[in-house]
Automatic annotation (TrEMBL):
Stated name of the protein: DUF2630 domain-containing protein
Source taxon at top rank: Bacteria
Protein species of origin: Nocardioides luteus
Disordered as annotated region, ranges: 52-74
Stored InterPro entries: Uncharacterised_Rv0898c
Pfam family, one: DUF2630
Length: 74
């Protein structure tokens, strides 16, 4: 998956998140899923950029489990 594909996916997830948040009440379960997927996408993009920066194959970057990305500190 190329960086552009990841960015497109992030954009689609953000759009869906905004739609859910602008509605009445929103679907809290789906919002949680979206937040996790966004965290995973951003993590994958950061991994790819770091590998590129240090001369490693960016194709080795992998989506990390939700349990991993959800424990990162801001």
């Amino acid at each position: 998956m190329a960086d552009e594909d990841i960015i497109t996916r992030i954009s689609a997830l953000v759009d869906e998140e905004h739609q859910l948040r602008s509605g009445s009440g929103g679907d809290t379960q789906r919002l949680g899923e979206l937040e996790t997927q966004l965290d995973q996408c951003w993590d994958l993009l950061r991994q790819r950029r770091a590998k590129r920066e240090f001369g490693e194959p960016e194709s080795e970057a992998q989506v990390r489990p939700a349990e991993t990305v959800e424990k990162y500190l801001s």
